[in-house]
Amino acid sequence: MIDSLRGGLIVSCQAYPGEPLRDPRAMSLIAMSAAAGGAAGIRAQGIEDITLIRQLVALPLIGLLKVGDGDVFITPTLAHAIAVAEAGADIVAIDGTRRDRPDGLTLAETIRAIHETTGALVMADAGSLEDGLSAQDAGADIVGTTLSGYTGARPRTIGPDLELISEMAAALSVPVFAEGRIRTPAQASEALDRGAYAVVVGTAITHPTSITSWYVDALRRELVPTEPA
């Protein structure tokens, strides 16, 4: 399954709470559209979304649950991870940082239990090279740059953290998925050039609210009057 993702685009189909597209049917339609466009895989959040997308899309599916507003909120416990796998995810994405987990389990204990209980693969969402190395040692099948700029370990770059992608690709033996703030095809291509095994893009493809705001902001800047010379 991981081999089928090499060099490919994984489309993250998620919507924020309160938005019109925050609906499993809407996310499944976006996932189907991504598949029709040539996506190699799908990343989805929420049990209902994962369940429906699994029924409609045959691509490898990375699933997660966002729970609470604490530091560790991406599939924060083993129980959440098992629920994601049982909903149909082939790969369970979890917080892969070195921070304490809400259920008291270590990252290694969590990953081992996911493997043994569900048979699903594990993608560790990391925020630094140190996180990535620790996640690899803990048994993660994939490490993502997802949390770069969000844990305090690294500054938040305007675009993708290309430096971290390069560092992880050079230091890790497991596949490194580039994820986070990838807005253009050129940035996605650069991530592969830096050594990423695959590229995950969400907002720039599946979040019309954000995409619209980028255009609106650009047009507003064009309308700002300049002072006379």
UniProtKB/TrEMBL annotation:
Is Repeat given among the entry's keywords? no
Q: EC class of this enzyme? A: isomerase
What InterPro entries does the record tag this protein with? Aldolase_TIM (IPR013785), NanE (IPR007260), RibuloseP-bd_barrel (IPR011060)
Pathway the protein acts in: Amino-sugar metabolism; N-acetylneuraminate degradation; D-fructose 6-phosphate from N-acetylneuraminate: step 3/5
Instruction: Write the Enzyme Commission number(s) for this entry.
Output: 5.1.3.9
Q: Which GO terms describe its cellular component?
A: cytosol
GO biological process terms held by the UniProt record: carbohydrate metabolic process; N-acetylmannosamine catabolic process; N-acetylneuraminate catabolic process
Keyword annotations from UniProtKB, A to Z: Carbohydrate metabolism, Isomerase
Q: Entry's CDD domains?
A: NanE (cd04729)
**What does the protein in this record do?**
Converts N-acetylmannosamine-6-phosphate (ManNAc-6-P) to N-acetylglucosamine-6-phosphate (GlcNAc-6-P).
Q: What family is reported?
A: Belongs to the NanE family.
Q: Can you name this protein? A: Putative N-acetylmannosamine-6-phosphate 2-epimerase
Species name for this entry?
Lacisediminihabitans profunda
